[in-house]
Amino acid sequence: MFKHSLLFLAGFILFSTTRAQNPQRVKQANTEKGLAIQGYDPVAYFTMGKALKGKKEFSVLAEGITYYFSTPENKDLFKNDYKKYEPQYGGWCAYAMGATAEKVEIDPETFKIKDGKLYLFYHTWTNNTLPKWNKNETNLKAKADQAWGKWLQ
């Protein structure tokens, strides 16, 4: 009986994690070996207002993309409504997506939450794209939404 229960559970877990995968979403996402946001906790941006590194032991696979969390509570919040916490544009730089329709790396510590959505930005010591986004946000967001839609086709 115990052996059958374990086989059923293993099969269910395998089915539930692979069934929901969207290959195009996985292909277009900004991940490193399937890990999103360079291991930062997507929920912490919302609940704590800051970027926090997640821990491997608190991980969730959402449609083929792995996220790490800093606390079990954040992990649970994500599991209950992961689309609410995922970054826009697959985790690529929002400014670049709007300005040039390109996928550009991000600095996970440079972010903005607007209208309940997480936007990430490229930032080096010579170039911070968040202020550029803020200067023309409405126009850039519209262009980024359109460009991201084309990436997902």
Describe the protein's architecture and organization:
With 153 residues, this protein is α+β, with helices and mostly antiparallel strands. It has two domains: 20-86, no CATH class; 88-153, no CATH class. 47% of the residues lie in helices and 20% in strands. The protein is built from eight helices and six strands, in the order ααββαββαααββαα. It has helices at residues 2-19, 23-28, 42-47, 72-80, 82-85, 94-100, 129-135, 137-151; strands at 31-32, 35-36, 55-62, 65-69, 107-114, 117-121. It has a two-stranded antiparallel ribbon. The longest helix is centred in the first third of the chain and has 18 residues, at 2-19. The radius of gyration is 17 Å and the shape is globular. It starts with a helix and ends with a helix. Mean pLDDT is 89; it is low at 2-19.
List keywords for this structure.
153 residues, alpha+beta, two-stranded antiparallel ribbon, two-stranded antiparallel sheet, 6 strands, disordered N terminus
Order of H and E elements: HHEEHEEHHHEEHH
Strand content: 15-25%
Structural class: alpha+beta
Shape: globular
Number of DSSP helical runs: 8
The number of distinct structural domains comes to 2
Within the largest sheet, what's the order of strands?
1-2
Biggest pleated sheet: 2 strands, antiparallel
- How far apart the termini lie comes to 46 Å
User: Uncertain runs with pLDDT below 50, 5 residues or more?
Assistant: 2-19
Number of strands: 6
> How confident is the prediction overall: mean pLDDT?
89
Gyration radius (Cα, Å) is 17 Å
Residue share in helix: 40-55%
